[in-house]
Design a protein that fits this description.
Blueprint lengths: L2 E5 L6 H14 L3 E5 L20 E6 L8 E6 L4 E8 L2 E8 L2 E9 L4 H17 L4 E7 L9 E2 L7 H13 L2 E3 L9 E2 L6 E2 L2 E6 H7 L3 E4 L10 E4 L14 H5 L3 H11 L6 H24 L2 H21 L7 H29 L11 H15 L3 E4 L2 E4 L1 H15 L20 H8 L4 H10 L13 H6 L1 H18 L8 H4 L1 H22 L13 H4 L13 H18 L4 H10 L12 H4 L4 H11 L12 E4 L19 H4 L1 H6 L11 E4 L2 E4 L10 H14 L11 E4 L8 H12 L7 H12 L4 H12 L5 H6 L21 H7 L1 H13 L4 H6 L9 H11 L2 H29 L5 H19 L8 H6 L8
Parallel strand pairs: 1-2, 7-8
Antiparallel strand pairs: 1-15, 2-4, 3-4, 5-6, 6-7, 8-13, 9-12, 10-13, 11-12, 14-15, 16-17, 18-21, 19-20
Helix pairs in contact: 2-3, 6-7, 7-15, 8-9, 9-10, 19-22, 19-26, 27-28, 28-34, 30-31, 31-35, 33-34, 34-35
The chain binds zinc ion.
């Protein structure tokens, strides 16, 4: 049965009649509700002209004066008329259709709230007389259910009225049929306001009986209302996918049942095949078990309640002292049964409805049912707009979606450059083995345990919670499957979605593993124990000239890769995947940069959640993704006034934080922050003018000044520009952006960076450079540092192991310590200099850090000796001191200045002769006797 409704605003003239015939023709309606006919009993309305092929019947409520009038028209053969009834704002007919009592109510509601309430009340009263009837109430209700059903006239929304309307719908036990192709049914003359005034409310049963898929909103022509009609194509989308319900797990029979199926399903072949077959067997069993056990849920609750009540009656009849223990026990059991069955049912319904059941305060199963069905209707895709026009029908929609995702997962063939003839650095055998080690049972278990159990990851319907629950007997098959994947490197077609969910988790583990290997390589000496990291990982990932080691930060790289989706999301608004997201998460998708709350996140899919987190999590205090995008203002309909960067180099939120604090619409679009009037654009930013005093007023004046010459361009298109745009967004560029933001942690003086640079260039072995880097950064495990970090306790423990007099810090251990001074003295005299004189002439108390030591050397030395010290000697001396100190601490060697000096000279010789690859013409003896001669190599 197709029913159309149209507020026609008078149907006296031929143009209106023509328009009405078009609506009936377009909709193929059997019944037509017309409102505001403005016709009177005496007018001659040509009813038969609406349907050309059959005799039509009608019922009417006449207009009073120049306004109102309701007319219901129908094809006589559609049903048998029993009676008609009228009241304030409605005209109903009671008909017999397919053996049902059907009530068709045509609504033209007054705009006065008292009259609306009268209308609702009358109808509810009337319905009470026919509780078993089916109802279809449609027309112009002149009110809305929620705020988003109105646009433009924002002050026109009345919450109380909306709640009353909602009550009416609930009391009538009706369901609001969603609109398919438009959001609104009414538009005012200049298009500045629109709302959803017209609708159909129908009995739940009619969805199936009529095959209702939604409401089609027709074109608006002669009236300010659009015609609407029920879309009644019975659609069969094919078999419903299997879905796993968490509530099953709570049932006592569940685990034994699954274990039984699992153990008794014997299949040979590949692990993936075995796993698939077992899951399939479980699926089939669970489906029938669900019908047997959970189909009876309501019945079981009723039974348990009945039992408890009859026991209560028994107790009431017994004498005071006659309460038998067995009755009391039975009563306890019955009471527990009531709670258990109710708990089971609620749990089951809760997951089905996937909504916060506490919201309505009780476990209203009717509410759950309606939410459940409503969700299904909302998720139902009745039509799809594509570049090739609008698609309808199961086959077309299915194949469009299939092809879209297929193209996303196929790679076009292209000629790519090859990497032949390049020599890469090669991993050591141990490192390679570690990276390639097969997944361990514990690793797989960890991933399963870390995952969100409630989410059903895909079309196979098994959530990871299923694996958790049944881990004991499914683990062998799961581990076999994952290890088979590891060996073969391909996922078979039969791979189920749950296991695909394991894969994105796995790269994350790989990521952590890589970082762990890198860290251990740097700080540890193997052995697997946890090593202390002396410099933060982010800092290590900076370039050497910025104080790091130039290690590639795989985490940042991963962020950059993920953010590509974020960028495409903002720029690919015509893509189907964007439309699907919008469909699912609503239109509040404008800014990825908004930090999303945890509770919102839990409703998101894993993939979407990850993208939101990558693009929405602040990095070192920056909305790194949002702040990296600047906009070129066009129409202003996709740029956020405060949050996007569209004026100058920073967002208005950052420029005017105080104003942003008090603004009324933090997420307002530019186009909604002003309007065109008298041929010009004037800004209406939405800041309460009473707040504009003092500093706020100053800010405000400045903002107005900035905005003065700016206006949106009605024909333009808003454009997004990525940070330092050269050719748009690239992963490389995003990585650079992340790198730049992380530069904030590279705190250090120009002197430090200059010395580090010199160190990296020095002709000394790599391990010594690394030592020198730690020495300059203050990241050596001297006793004072260890004491600071709580590794050793007690002030005495932080004393210098050489002299036991002062704390061991870099400035002391490497220069000021009495035991160390001798070494420097000898080294200086080796170069023909007097260390004591130099030491006396400097302020030794100020020497604390490695940088201070270097500054002392810088001020004390001259000419070529100085450059020699800085290119070579200081790392050599300090490295030797450190080694000798470690031998003393850990191997209890003696502190022998002569030996240390000899070591310095001979190590120095090794470096010179090896690193200069023999291009020297001095001898070892000459080096030992007079190193100054070697200067100028
Ligand atoms: Zn000392």
């Amino acid at each position: 049965m197709i029913i159309a409704s149209y507020n026609i605003r008078g149907c006296g003239c031929n143009a209106k009649l023509h328009s009405l015939r078009k609506v009936v023709g377009d909709s193929k309606a059997d019944v037509c509700f017309i409102q505001e006919t403005k016709i009177h009993a005496i007018d001659n309305f040509p009813v038969d002209s609406v349907w050309s092929d059959s005799l039509a019947d009608w019922s009417s409520k006449w207009a009073v004066g120049r306004s109102g009038g309701i007319l219901t028209l129908w094809k006589k053969k559609s049903f048998i008329l029993v009676s008609s009834f009228v009241g304030e704002g409605f005209l109903g007919i009671h008909v017999l259709w397919s053996g049902f009592n059907l009530f068709l109510v045509n609504v033209y509601s007054s705009c006065f709230i008292e009259k609306k309430r009268a209308f609702w009340g009358r109808l509810v009263e009337f319905k009470a007389k026919f509780p078993d009837g089916l109802w279809c109430v449609g027309g112009d209700f002149n009110t809305v259910r929620v705020k988003v059903e109105r646009k433009g006239i924002s002050n026109n929304f009345n919450l109380k009225e909306a709640e009353d309307f909602e009550d009416f719908i609930r009391s009538m036990d009706l369901v609001d049929v969603p609109l398919i192709n438009k959001k609104f049914t009414w538009f005012n003359l200049d298009g500045s306001a629109c709302s959803r005034l017209d609708r159909f409310l129908i009995s739940e049963k009619l969805f199936d009986l009529w095959g209702v898929g939604g409401i089609v909103v027709g074109d608006r022509s002669i009236s300010d209302h659009c015609p609407i009609w029920l879309n009644c194509k019975i659609v069969d989308w094919g078999p419903k996918p299997f879905k796993f319900f968490k509530g099953w797990c709570e049932h006592d029979e569940f685990t034994p049942l699954v274990r039984d199926v699992w153990k008794n399903t014997f299949r040979g072949g590949k692990a993936s095949y075995i796993l698939k077959e077992k899951l399939l067997a479980v699926k089939i069993k669970l489906k029938s078990w669900n019908k047997e056990v959970f189909g009876m849920l309501d019945l079981n609750v009723d039974k348990a309640v009945g039992e408890l009540n009859s026991l209560d009656l028994m107790v009431a009849d017994l004498a005071e002292d006659g309460l038998v223990d067995s009755v009391r026990r039975n009563r306890e059991v019955a009471s527990k049964e009531v709670w258990d069955t109710m708990f089971l049912r609620d749990n089951f319904l809760r997951q089905k409805a996937r909504c916060n059941w506490i919201r309505l305060g009780d476990t209203n199963s009717k509410f759950f049912h309606s939410v459940m069905k409503g969700r299904f209707r909302r998720n139902n895709i009745a039509s799809l707009i594509t570049p090739r026009g609008r698609l309808e029908g199961v086959e077309d929609i299915k194949s469009e979606i299939f092809n879209h995702f297929k193209s996303r997962f196929t790679e076009p063939m292209e000629n790519r450059p090859t990497l032949d003839g390049l020599n890469f650095n090669v991993l050591s055998v141990e490192d390679r083995d570690l990276l390639e080690a097969p997944f361990q049972v514990d690793e797989i278990k960890e991933i399963v345990w870390l995952s969100d159990c409630d989410k059903s990851p895909g079309p196979d319907g098994f959530p990871l919670g299923f694996l958790k629950k049944c881990w004991n007997f499914v683990k062998d098959d799961v581990v076999n499957f994952v290890q088979e994947f590891y060996v073969r490197g391909v996922l078979p077609r039969s791979a189920t979605a749950s296991f695909l969910a394991l894969i994105p988790k796995a790269p994350k583990c790989v990521l952590e593993e890589i970082i762990k290997i890198q860290r251990n390589f740097l700080w540890g000496d193997g052995g697997g124990s946890r090593k202390m990291c002396w410099v933060s990982w982010d800092k290590i990932c900076l370039r050497t000239e910025e104080g790091g080691l130039g290690v590639k930060n795989v985490e940042w790289f991963n962020l950059a890769l993920m953010s590509k989706w974020g960028w495409r999301f903002l720029n690919d608004k015509h893509a189907i995947w964007f439309k699907l997201l919008q469909f699912r998460y609503g239109s509040g998708l404008q800014s990825l940069g908004d930090v999303v709350s945890k509770s919102t996140l839990s409703n998101y899919s894993l993939w979407w959640r990850d993208i939101r987190l990558v693009c929405g999590t602040p990095l070192r205090g920056h909305d790194w993704f949002g702040d990296s995008i600047s906009c070129k203002l066009g129409r202003g309909n996709s740029i956020l006034f405060w949050k996007h960067c569209w004026l100058g180099n920073s967002s208005l939120k950052l420029l005017f934080p105080r104003l942003f604090e008090v603004c009324s619409f933090p997420n307002a679009l530019v186009i909604n922050c002003g309007l065109w009037e008298n041929g010009g654009w004037s800004w209406k930013v939405g800041v309460d003018s009473t707040l504009l005093v003092g500093e706020l007023l100053e800010d405000w004046k400045e903002l107005i000044e900035i905005l003065k010459d700016v206006k949106p361009c009605t024909n333009g298109v808003d454009k997004l520009i990525w940070w330092r745009d050269v050719g748009g967004f690239s992963v490389r560029n995003a990585f650079k952006r992340l790198y730049t933001l992380n530069l904030a942690i590279s705190n250090g003086s120009d002197f430090r960076f200059c010395e580090l640079k010199r160190l990296w260039k020095a002709t000394i072995p790599w391990k010594v450079k690394l030592f020198g880097w730690r020495w300059i950064l203050g990241a050596l495990p001297t006793r004072k540092e260890l004491w600071h970090r709580g590794v050793i306790l007690g002030v005495e423990a932080s004393l210098c192991p050489l002299c036991d007099l002062e704390e061991e810090f870099v400035g002391h251990l490497f220069l000021k310590c009495g035991k160390v001074k001798f070494i420097w003295k000898e080294v200086f005299s080796w170069f023909g200099l007097d260390f004591d004189v130099l030491l006396r002439s400097s302020d030794i108390d100020t020497i604390v850090t490695g940088e201070d030591v270097l500054l002392f050397l810088l001020n004390s030395l001259d000419g070529r000796v100085k450059s020699y010290f800085f290119a070579f000697i200081w790392p050599l001396v300090c490295w030797s001191i450190w080694n000798a100190r470690n031998s003393l601490v850990f191997e209890h060697s003696n502190w022998n200045v002569v030996e240390i000096l000899l070591l310095i000279k001979s190590i120095g010789w090794d470096w010179i002769s090896i690193l200069s690859k023999g291009n020297i013409d001095i001898t070892r003896d000459l080096w030992f006797a007079n190193p100054a001669n070697c200067i100028g190599l």
